[in-house]
């Protein structure tokens, strides 16, 4: 009698945690805006140029690519200033390496 009750409780907990993760992902996707740096599920990094309910247009080194909104894995940086700082730091490292 105890075994079926435990099984039902475990199944209920799995559904609950899955719904919770799904809601967190939906909330994260709804907060993405133009200028955010994101990563797609394929591992492609880009900056959001346009976004609507169904699709996202990414700027990847001057090339504009259109993806379904669900193809976004996560947000890397939330402002263009943050990505500019990262780019400047990588350029400084490159320049330092070239000088040496």
Fold and architecture overview:
Strand 1 (37-40) and strand 2 (45-51) form a beta hairpin. The chain has a five-stranded antiparallel β-sheet. It is elongated. 49% of the residues lie in helices and 29% in strands. The chain is an alpha+beta fold and 100 residues long.
List the helices and strands and how they pair.
Elements (H helix, E strand, L loop, with lengths): L1 H29 L6 E4 L4 E7 L3 E6 L2 E6 L3 E6 L2 H20 L1
Antiparallel strand pairs: 1-2, 1-5, 2-3, 3-4
Organism: Streptococcus iners subsp. hyiners
Keywords: Cell membrane, Membrane, Protein transport, Translocation, Transmembrane, Transmembrane helix, Transport
Subcellular location: Cell membrane
Give unreliable regions as ranges: none
Q: Which range does the strand content fall in? A: 25-35%
Distance between the termini: 74 Å
Mean pLDDT: 82
Structural class: alpha+beta
Major sheet: arrangement of strands: 4-3-2-1-5
Provide the helix percentage.
40-55%
Radius of gyration: 20 Å
The coarse overall form would be elongated
**H-E string:** HEEEEEH
How is the biggest beta sheet arranged? 5 strands, antiparallel
**Oligomer status:** single chain
Tally of DSSP β-strands: 5
Helix count from the secondary structure assignment: 2
